[in-house]
Specification:
alpha/beta; three-stranded parallel β-sheet; 13% strand
C-alpha cells in the first residue's frame, strides 16, 4: 500500500525537481497494490494526470484521523471560556500571522479573551515581536510544541474557538490534501474558523461546525464575534463539531480502509492466481 499524505501538481518551483517528484509518484502508483489518498481531490488529480486505466480500482480515500474516543470533551458553558487557540506550524502558509492580527483587533471589544499558540516554526520570532508591538504579551501565550497529545487534547477542551487560517498561496498543498488540525479542534468540542483552502472547509460549513472565512482580518474578527456573542449558535456549532468528528476515529478509518483493500484488491489477486 502506498500511503501518500500530499499530492500537488506543482510541488516545486524547479521543473526538474517537479518532474522527479512526479516520476517517483508514478512509479509508486504503478507498482503498488493500492494507493491511499488523504482526499478525493488528490484522487481526482491523479486521475487527470495518469488516466483511469492506471488508477482503476487501486485508489482509495483514507483521510487523516483522530483518537476521538480517547478525548474527554469539556462541554462547559461558553461563559466560563475565554481562550482561543492555534495549533500547528508557525509558518506563513498556515496563517498564524493572521490569527495574531485578528486577535489584536478582537480584544479591543472583548478584552477578556486570551490567545494560545502551540507549535514551532520559522515565523516564531516575528510572531513574538508582533505580539509585543501590539502590547499583547499578557494576552498571548506561546507554548511551543506539546509532544504529549493527551495534554494537547486537554488544553483544547478548555478553549472556545480553534483557528485554521491557511493562506491562499499558489504553492500550498493544503488545497489538495486533508488536514488534521480542524478535526482535532472539532473532536475537542471547538467550533472552527477556517479559510476555504482545504477541502474540509466545505464540510465544516455544510454541517455547521464553524465558519468559513476569507483570508482577511475583518472576516476573521466578524466570524469570531458571531460565535462568541451568541451562546445558542456556539452550542450548535460545538455539538455539530463533535458529531462530525466522530467518523474520523483512527480505528474506524483503518478498519474501513483495510476492509476495502481486502474486498477489491486482495481477493482479485487471489482469483487471478
Amino acid at each position: 500500500i502506498f500511503y501518500t499524505i500530499d499530492y500537488v501538481p506543482n510541488r516545486f518551483e524547479s521543473r526538474i525537481l517537479n518532474r522527479i517528484y512526479h516520476l517517483i509518484d508514478f512509479i509508486c502508483v504503478s507498482n503498488c497494490d493500492a494507493t491511499w489518498n488523504l482526499s478525493e481531490k488528490m484522487l481526482d488529480q491523479r486521475k487527470r494526470v495518469y488516466g483511469d486505466s492506471l488508477i482503476g480500482e487501486k485508489q482509495f480515500t483514507v483521510p487523516l484521523g483522530i483518537n476521538f474516543y480517547r478525548i474527554q470533551q469539556n462541554l462547559g458553558n461558553i461563559r466560563k471560556k475565554s481562550k482561543l487557540i492555534y495549533v500547528g506550524r508557525l509558518e506563513k502558509t498556515f496563517g498564524v500571522e493572521l490569527v495574531v492580527q485578528s486577535f489584536a483587533k478582537l480584544v479591543e471589544d472583548l478584552p477578556y479573551l486570551e490567545l494560545i499558540i502551540t507549535g514551532s516554526g520559522e515565523e516564531e520570532k516575528e510572531l513574538r515581536k508582533m505580539v509585543h508591538n501590539y502590547s499583547l504579551d499578557s494576552k498571548v501565550k506561546f507554548l511551543g510544541v506539546i509532544p504529549d497529545h493527551k495534554e494537547l487534547e486537554l488544553l483544547l477542551s478548555e478553549c472556545i474557538i480553534g483557528f485554521a487560517l491557511y493562506a491562499p498561496t499558489k504553492e500550498t498543498y493544503k488545497q489538495y490534501t486533508d488536514v488534521g488540525k480542524p478535526k482535532l479542534y472539532m473532536a475537542c468540542g471547538l467550533p472552527v474558523i477556517i479559510t476555504r483552502i482545504p477541502p474540509i472547509a466545505r464540510e465544516i460549513k455544510r454541517v455547521e461546525a464553524g465558519i468559513v472565512v476569507d483570508h482577511d482580518i475583518n472576516s476573521v474578527v466578524s466570524a469570531a464575534k458571531t460565535i462568541l456573542l451568541n451562546d445558542k449558535l456556539y452550542e450548535r456549532y460545538k455539538e455539530n463539531a463533535i458529531l462530525y468528528a466522530n467518523q474520523f476515529d483512527w480505528e474506524y478509518i483503518f478498519d474501513k480502509a483495510f476492509r476495502n483493500f481486502k474486498d477489491i484488491v486482495f481477493e482479485k489477486r487471489i482469483l487471478a492466481q
